[in-house]
Design goal:
The complex is a heterodimer of chains A (291) and B (359). Chain A has 291 residues and is mainly alpha-helical. Chain A contains twelve helices and two strands. In chain A, helix 1 crosses helix 6, helix 1 runs antiparallel to helix 8 and helix 3 crosses helix 8. Chain B is built from 14 helices and two strands. Classes of the chains: A mainly alpha (291), B mainly alpha (359). Chains A and B meet through helix 1, helix 4, helix 10 and helix 12 of A and helix 5, helix 9, helix 11 and helix 14 of B.
Chain lengths: 291, 359
């Protein structure tokens, strides 16, 4: 029972991060119909910035955090405005390749600027130590992170469902032509979506970095969130949160009972199974035509 | 889709033979004059051409998005090592490794029967990580392989350093020539037309009597086999097989090759592969005067990585036809053809809404 609770808590903590990442991927996907393979690099950018600034005592944590979020969101929005906007009308995989280009570019630049340094992010206000739940010792840090990220993801889901901007984003994602006829400025909304994706990447990067070491392995975490996105349904915002949780908990159990090296392979096998059995995921829009 | 033109078979085959002749001439020039290090780069370039031509057939001609290219390279490399350790000597183990990579290609291609476009890229991503997992397990289980990977005795090493590279150049040139002849055949006529219909109008293809499943699986098998063959040969050229060499961003390099050269074109694949492989050796010459030798020495690979990315972004936004596209546009301008024929057909509705969802 102890092991089950430990893996459940670590899984939910991971799942919260995955939910944030998958939400970012979904926003980008709904706006421009491409998978954002540069999401991990955006996460790394934010985490590196905060880590670097903390190491050199530049500003307080709040300032560092805010600045890194703004920078990451600006990079994402600029990428949409400068690059993705021009892939309209090209074969649909051009946008995807463009995000891979951004990934490669950021990866090289980050490696050149920050080198192979490792940073620790100290998130002030995070409790340390352990908590006992039903006789199991659980790190209260991961418990707080789990709660915080999930709350954030849920808040965002609710905001997108009920606020005016959220409804515009959803409408533009469903049918751009119809939304533009309804008086929605598609370009602004898409820019906002990409900025939001960047913001979510920054949040996920910093929270993940605060419980783990920040080095270049961080960017692979975003690739692990693709199964979460697919499981929830590619274009479903609620699905991203649920998918993230499911994948996170699965990984928690796999890591505890089988060992850490099986995490990746189980996650991607799950991705293949979902692809073959139910390509539209749990909550996604079904494609009418099968090819 | 380009309008079908009636041209006799002999006129269609000729450009491929000319291309092979040009490559043979370049090979002769290089082996005659260059040092062993330049020849080594040239050989890596020829190897990359093999993979780029195969990926170009799969992605550029048939429109099947694959970002798991490194997976098939890894299958080729590790299967060669595995077979070699089982006692199969050189040519046989690489060939069987190619067959194994082809089978892996069929397995990865199976989702392609039901999935279109973008989602297929996720399947290839999953395949990459699964292959990497198996390779890592094999590498860590094998008795005499260190954490650095498997050492393979490079081929032709008895010929001396320069002689070995010269032999390699001719071997690879012959293989590349064969590949070009076969692929140029596949990209034309019935097969090529079928592939382009599958790419541009996936729902129409079955109604024209095209067996989509057979084409997709066949293409995945064929191209993966070539890429696997490339992986096996690379192991014998570099003398090392390690999981560290098959990174996710290696696949990005291959995408950059076919995009920069020009999709759906063999010439484009060859040009792109040469450029991308030559870039890391050219970049230090550019960086050293700008930032000084220490920066160039420390961050050379990272800077080339960033430049690949920037090149991809530039080509995607400004000239999606690649270098070959420039050539086509220039020749059209000179010959006075209208620019309309050169540009890709774009539906009006698609132009407004694309960027939202796939078809």
């Amino acid at each position: 029972v102890d092991l089950v609770i430990v893996s459940l808590v670590s899984g939910v903590s991971l799942g919260g991060t995955f939910a944030l990442i998958a939400l970012g991927l979904v926003f980008a996907f709904r706006a421009t119909g491409t998978f954002n393979f540069a999401h991990g690099e955006l996460m790394l950018l934010a985490a590196f910035l905060v880590g670097k600034w903390q190491a050199t005592h530049f500003g307080s944590f709040g300032v560092d955090f805010l600045l890194s979020v703004v920078v990451t969101a600006a990079v994402a929005a600029a990428f949409y405005l400068v690059v993705l906007r021009r892939t309209v009308g090209l074969p649909h995989w051009m946008g995807l390749i463009a995000t891979l280009g951004l990934a490669s570019c950021l990866d090289g630049l980050l490696a050149a600027v920050f080198g192979s340094n490792q940073y620790n992010i100290a998130f002030p206000g995070l409790p340390t130590g352990t908590v006992r739940i039903l006789d199991a010792r659980v790190s209260s840090t991961s418990l707080t992170v789990a709660g915080g990220t999930l709350l954030l993801a849920l808040l965002l889901t609710v905001a997108v469902r009920f606020t005016r901007v959220g409804i515009q984003i959803r409408a533009a994602g469903q049918d751009a032509l119809l939304a533009s006829q309804g008086g929605i400025n598609i370009r602004t909304v898409y820019t906002c979506s990409w900025a939001l994706a960047g913001l979510l990447a920054a949040l996920a990067g910093v929270t993940y970095g605060s419980t783990n070491i920040v080095n270049s392995d961080l960017e692979n975490v975003a690739l692990l969130a693709f199964p979460a996105m697919l499981l929830g349904g590619l274009d479903s915002i609620e699905g991203a949160v649920v998918g993230g949780l499911i994948i996170g908990v699965t990984q928690g159990f796999v890591a505890t009972f089988w060992g850490g090296q099986y995490v990746d392979v189980v996650t991607y096998t799950a991705l293949l199974v979902v692809l073959l059995v139910r390509p539209s995921g749990l909550f996604g829009t079904k494609q009418a035509a099968r090819v | 889709m380009r309008p079908a033109r009636v041209i006799s078979l002999s006129r269609q085959v000729r450009p491929a033979w000319w291309g092979v002749l040009v490559i043979a001439a370049i090979t002769a020039g290089f082996t005659g004059t260059q040092s062993s290090y330049s020849l080594y780069t040239f050989n890596l370039c020829l190897l990359a051409c093999l993979g780029a031509i195969a990926l170009n057939l799969l992605m550029g001609t048939a429109g099947q998005v694959s970002i798991g290219n490194a997976a098939f390279l890894a299958v080729g490399g590790f299967a060669s090592v595995w077979l070699l350790r089982l006692g199969l000597p050189f040519p046989a183990d690489v060939i069987v490794a190619g067959v194994i990579a082809g089978l892996a290609g069929v397995v990865v291609g199976l989702p392609a029967l039901r999935l279109s476009g973008l989602i297929l890229s996720l399947a290839t991503l999953a395949a990459y990580f699964i292959v990497l997992f198996v390779a890592t397990e094999y590498q860590s289980d094998a008795s005499n392989a260190g954490s650095g990977g498997f050492a393979v005795i490079p081929l032709f090493s008895s010929q001396g350093i320069t002689g070995a590279q010269q032999d390699w150049a001719w071997l690879l040139m012959i293989l590349l020539g064969l590949t070009i002849l076969v692929v140029s055949r596949l990209m034309r006529e019935r097969c090529g037309r079928a592939c382009r219909v599958i790419r541009d109008h996936p729902l129409v293809a079955p109604t024209l009597g095209i067996n989509v499943a057979r084409y997709k699986l066949g293409l995945f098998a064929f191209t993966s086999a070539i890429i696997g063959l490339q992986g096996g040969l690379t192991a014998y050229l570099t003398g090392l097989v390690s999981t560290d060499n098959y990174t996710f961003l290696l696949a990005v390099q291959y995408l950059a090759m076919i995009l920069i050269g020009g999709t759906d074109s063999i010439v484009g694949a060859v040009l792109g592969a040469s450029l991308i492989i030559a870039l890391p050796t050219l970049i230090p010459n550019v960086i050293t005067p700008l930032f000084g030798p220490t920066v160039a020495g420390l961050h050379g690979p990272q800077i080339s990585q960033a430049i690949y990315g920037i090149l991809i972004i530039i080509f995607v936004t400004s000239s999606p036809g690649g270098i070959v596209g420039w050539g086509r546009a220039a020749s059209n301008r000179i010959c006075g053809k209208s620019a309309l024929r050169a540009s890709a057909p774009v539906g009006t509705a698609e132009a407004v809404t694309s960027g939202t969802k796939g078809p």
